[in-house]
């Protein structure tokens, strides 16, 4: 379990036993429980189990119905799991997965004094998230912003000793991994980009060299930030390049000296 926690990047989680009873060496956080839950929900068997409200088993020839202890399952729109929990040290806990339309979220409530508080807090958080946020295509927004910025600043870069100054920018690979992100609905109309790039560079410039960053914000609220990389290769001038430059300039220099 601890090896899997490391693999998932859970730096503040440690498991001492499979049963999860109270122990100083058995701990996690709400955020890391959400990461772990997101991973577990990709397992079809786990997904089916946590979404099952009731199940009847036969024990010694007698049927017995088992009921899911997740009070939100089947009672709150979009809930499809996941897990309740209780120990004397942790109090009442609930991890909820809920999907409405194209928005899918995980809500984690820990340390509630009663089951009622756990339920109310979970419902409040879930409703707040769906009422306040919506998915936004950040990949398209950033790509269009880069294209517009380059069209508006065609001679922005000067590449010393370079064979060209025509640089194309691209955002970091993380943009492709998370093309859509949740953003507060009221921030979307006022979103803007701020390019932090150095105009003066020195050849050679390799493809994928980092040239700066781009911030997406709305007022004082930072929404996302991406590194900007070169999408071009510009080599350093050699002797032949300098000779070519000389012969290109020589006729104009000769003409100006004659007249």
> How many helices does DSSP assign?
7
How far from one another are the termini?
A: 84 Å
How many β-strand runs?
A: 13
Provide the CATH top-level class of the largest domain: Alpha Beta
Short recap of the structure:
The chain is α+β, with helices and mostly antiparallel strands.
Question: Could you walk me through the main structural features you see in this protein, from its secondary elements to its overall organization?
Answer:
This protein has two domains: 2-113, Beta-lactamase, CATH 3.40.710.10; 136-239, Peptidoglycan synthesis regulatory factor (PBP3), Domain 2 (Sandwich). 18% of the residues are buried. The model has no long low-confidence stretch (mean pLDDT 92). The chain is elongated and about 95 Å long. 31% of the residues lie in helices and 33% in strands. The strands form five sheets. It has a four-stranded antiparallel sheet, covered by helices on one side. Strands 3-4-5 form a three-stranded antiparallel sheet, with helices on both faces. The chain has helices at 2-7, 30-40, 44-50, 115-132, 138-152, 174-177, 239-258; strands at residues 54-59, 62-67, 79-87, 91-100, 103-112, 133-137, 158-160, 169-171, 180-184, 192-197, 200-202, 210-218, 221-230. The chain is α+β, with helices and mostly antiparallel strands and 259 residues long. The protein contains seven helices and 13 strands.
């Amino acid at each position: 379990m601890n090896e899997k926690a490391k693999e998932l990047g859970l730096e503040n989680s440690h498991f001492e036993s499979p049963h999860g009873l109270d122990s100083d060496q058995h701990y996690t956080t709400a955020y890391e429980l959400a990461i772990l839950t997101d991973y577990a929900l990709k397992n079809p068997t786990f997904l089916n189990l946590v979404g099952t409200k009731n199940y009847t088993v036969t024990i010694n020839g007698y049927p017995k119905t088992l009921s899911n202890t997740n009070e939100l399952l089947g009672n709150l729109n979009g809930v499809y799991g996941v897990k309740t929990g209780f120990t004397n040290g942790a109090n009442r806990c609930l991890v909820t997965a809920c999907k409405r339309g194209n928005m899918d979220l995980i809500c984690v409530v820990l340390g509630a004094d009663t089951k009622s508080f756990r339920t109310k807090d979970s419902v409040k958080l879930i409703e707040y998230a769906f009422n306040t946020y919506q998915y936004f295509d950040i990949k398209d927004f950033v790509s269009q912003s880069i294209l517009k910025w380059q069209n508006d600043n065609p001679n922005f870069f000067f590449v010393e000793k370079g064979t060209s100054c025509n640089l194309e920018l691209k955002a970091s690979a993380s943009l492709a991994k998370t093309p859509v992100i949740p953003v507060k609905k009221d921030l979307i109309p006022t979103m803007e980009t701020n390019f932090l790039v150095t105009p003066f560079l020195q050849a050679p410039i390799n493809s994928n060299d980092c040239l700066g960053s781009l911030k997406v914000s709305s007022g004082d609220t930072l929404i996302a930030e991406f590194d900007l990389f070169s999408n071009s290769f510009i080599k350093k001038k050699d002797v032949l390049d300098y000779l070519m430059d000389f012969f290109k300039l020589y006729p104009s220099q000769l003409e100006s000296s004659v007249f």
